[in-house]
Amino acid sequence: MSHLADLFVRTRAENRAALIGYLPAGFPNQEMSIKVIKAMIEGGVDAVEIGFPYSDPVMDGPIIQEAAETARAAGITMKKTLEVVREVATTGAPTLMMTYWNPIDRYGVERYAEDFHAAGMEGVITPDLTIEEADEWLGLTDRLGMHPIFVVAPSTADERLKLVADRCSGFIYAASTMGVTGARTTVSSAASTLVERLRKITDTPVCVGLGVSNGEQAAEVAKYADGVIVGSAFVKAVLANPEDPLPGVRAVAEDLARGVRNR
Amino acid sequence: MTKIAAPPFVPAALPEPITSSEAIDGHFGPYGGRFVPEALISALDELERIYNAAKVDPAFIAELAELNATYVGRPSILTEAHNFSKACGGARILLKREDLNHTGSHKINNVIGQALITKRMGKKRIIAETGAGQHGVAAATAAALMGFECVVYMGAEDIRRQSLNVARMKLLGAEVVPVTSGSQTLKDALNEAMRDWVTNVATTHYLLGTVAGPHPFPSMVRDFHSVIGIEAREQVLALTGKLPDAVLACVGGGSNAIGIFHRFISDPSVRLIGLEAGGDGIETGRHASSISGGTSGVLHGSRTYVLQDEDGQTIESHSISAGLDYPGVGPEHAYLKDMGRAEYRSVTDAQAMEAFALLSRTEGIIPAIETAHALYGAMVLGRELGPDATILINLSGRGDKDVQTAAAWFGIEL
């Protein structure tokens, strides 16, 4: 069983939601990004999504765009991202990636799956890969025993929701709202409706992302979802104190970790 | 100067597939498709459904033909460029005058079509990306005509070099949002428009301005522009009694090119040549020639030729022409290139400006700098083919918007 599958068995037994933390690889630089992710895990993040900073991130709001640009300016590459994945996977925390499709396409889909799987990556969230374009990818994730994770949205029609959900493994990424990444003052009520719709058609765990930034919001989402995904809040914590980001990052993780246990 | 007016364009239906490059399941061979956030799929499905119904609906076809005839100014005329011909090895040069359309370029053809589709979808807000500002002006125009709210995303760099069009959009009532991310040009304006669309898709139609993006945009935008080639083919036959030897058009995203190419695809004797922006020259790396100098990848929702590095990061394009300054190209062009049905060549900034000046001086027509790339292509091709050849050029836009850039290039004090 993968660490990721194991995580949801554990969180269900503990009657809590999982906390999944996102950070772009190489932000603010390669070495520090590994330290930040380790601080996230120390603070209570259960699973990690490592983003690949891409030049045209149409799903991302200003905070993650800025982080991606910083990481690219500091010299992040796919090769260096592979090192970040390998290093983070040694912690034993489920290690995932989230990336736009073109970098995988360019690296070579099969080579990517094999290299990164060998480095300890258990699954990949692919926000702009539609299931219609995913045949080769699903063949590879199946062969290697990796988790393909697709994103569904409040606008996803019922029949399509089933099609996409059936192709996810590990968990389903439910976008809480129609929009891009970034902190919001409230988590849209569309999220609970979407999770409810998913519950009727699948037993795969459902994690909710987009807009969650503090423990209070995490607790709200934890009432109905198997996991809470947080990204921009960690990036903000790094930006708030770039010289010494780790205490701030740990504090954000601790707050969120309390939230996911406070159903 | 001979001007030939074609009879008014009153189609029985929008053009049926006449080409082996027609999309199957949204794909042109390996290109095209949909690489977008799931949040947009239902909107793309709705757009496809409504467009497919509209294009065979006599009421829609009649409404579009009426607006084309009474608002856009179709059919656009064909002008024979006797003087410019001398710079083209004496070849016969025919200009399809899309510059004479309302708003000054071919862009209005697509905009009017999509605005009618927007009405059918019951949406009241349109968003658009623009490079040179031609599509933004066309979109703002249609929004004014049909009472839509209109937001245009435009790179901050492009706002600087196309200030006249920015003023036009504002006069037409559109909001122009400067995009300061990335290279601050067309590609980043497209990213920002996509972000707006993901957020506001329930109320908003993304009026995409070229034959790129996710299915059904490349096919739908192509269909609305195919009127250019349909008219031009008739006009050339009426004037010369035969088909042209070659059809030339500039290619950024590729909408004016696909518009004039499409009707000729099933005429094997007619060479189809797209002229890409070569910037400082392909060998310098500072260019916008996605087909001549790019590789297969995914950008802005479809698979196509892309300027990218070894990690799949988009390489910023460079061109004096804001409208061609784009690191991707429509997927149908990628397929036409691979099929060998169309050829693509690259024209540098300096070469384009040479043709820009020459057409202005010899014919009294100031072309858009985008279009000047196609004109330079004709100067080279005409010398290759000789005086017996007939070359049809899509004169896709007029150069009023480029006066500042051209004045700076030629050292004219304003």
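Confidence is low (pLDDT under 50) at residues 7-12, 15-19 of chain B.
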